[in-house]
Amino acid sequence: MSGPLHNLRVVEMSGLGPCPLAGQLLADMGAEVITIDRSSTAVDPTDINRRNKQSIAIDLKTKAGLEIALKLIERADILIEGFRPGVMEKLGLGPGDCLARNPKLIFGRMTGWGQTGPLAKTAGHDLNYLAITGALNSIGLKDKPPIPPLNLVADYGGGTMFLLFGVLSALFERSQSGKGQVVDAAMVDGVPAMMGLLHSWMAQQQWTSQRESNLLDGGAPFYRCYETAEGKYLSVGPLEPKFFAELIEKAGIVQEHAQNQYDSASWPDKHAEYEAVFLSKNRDEWMKIFDSSDACIAPVLEMDEVESHPHNASRETFVRIDGVLQASPAPRFSRTSPNTPKTPTAVGADSEDILQQLGYNDSEIDQLIQSCVLT
Prior knowledge:
The protein is of the alpha/beta class. The chain has helices spanning 18-28, 63-74, 87-91, 95-101, 126-131, 152-177, 187-193, 196-203, 241-251, 267-278, 283-289, 310-315, 351-357, 362-370; strands spanning 9-13, 32-37, 54-57, 78-81, 106-111, 181-186, 224-227, 233-236, 297-299, 318-321, 324-327.
């Protein structure tokens, strides 16, 4: 077996951001993912989001190029695209066009603002989408501007993961109804969907809008990062009293702190005290002290350190392909484990093979090359 999605056919409209990652993750799980690209380029082994995929480069503004795309879509289970609303329709590849050719198609649309609403057709990025959900306001230091959490939360958490959740949910429904449908995956919908716990705490008046004042935003002295003697960092997160008690014992913190762990009025003073404690030793010395403990301590690793960490190495969490460090396929399966990822091919490198699979003969392919339909 080559993964749980073996035999699933996916067409990905090439673009940027969360859609290419969605295609990569589907391909990691064994799906046949073909990207429709604008023009051929040289191979780039560092373009990790292209691993395990095939690529065809065609001019969609030509009648012949559009027909090739529709033939690919006609045989696909899923199509994913990340353009602004209306772009696929202008290309002649909107949901109406595609579902007319393939009524069982799952048409996955990935945007920041969604397909409808006042902002739907305006530009934006992860930070903007995160901003209007309320999540961004909770990330950062007190009395400082919010801090961008890379593009992990909106682009990939609220975007990629909800696109995948949506198209695979629709695929399951299709197994019962036999019908395809359109999935509108918007980051501004996905991020709030992940915030159920915070919304509960707000309703219970256990969460405030002031940054660095709450349990999970760095306000609690037992749930934040601390600098160590050599300028590196530890993540400290013993939320539960029994784990916090272990932290106190091993770090040499005053035992009385175990009695008022959740007294938020005492947190600011404890911050300074804990900072001094963790500055007294370097990161590796602390990790020896906390080795195999339940104090919920982990080193804050730099990117070039993650591969050699004993836990990561044991689980083979990372893999090198053509010398490029990247994540192994996730999650893991007991029976249908996916293969080791393949290095990305060049954009457009599979054009002729894909056309042959669609039934084009050599003469027809030569004509498409000469007329610049293949780009």
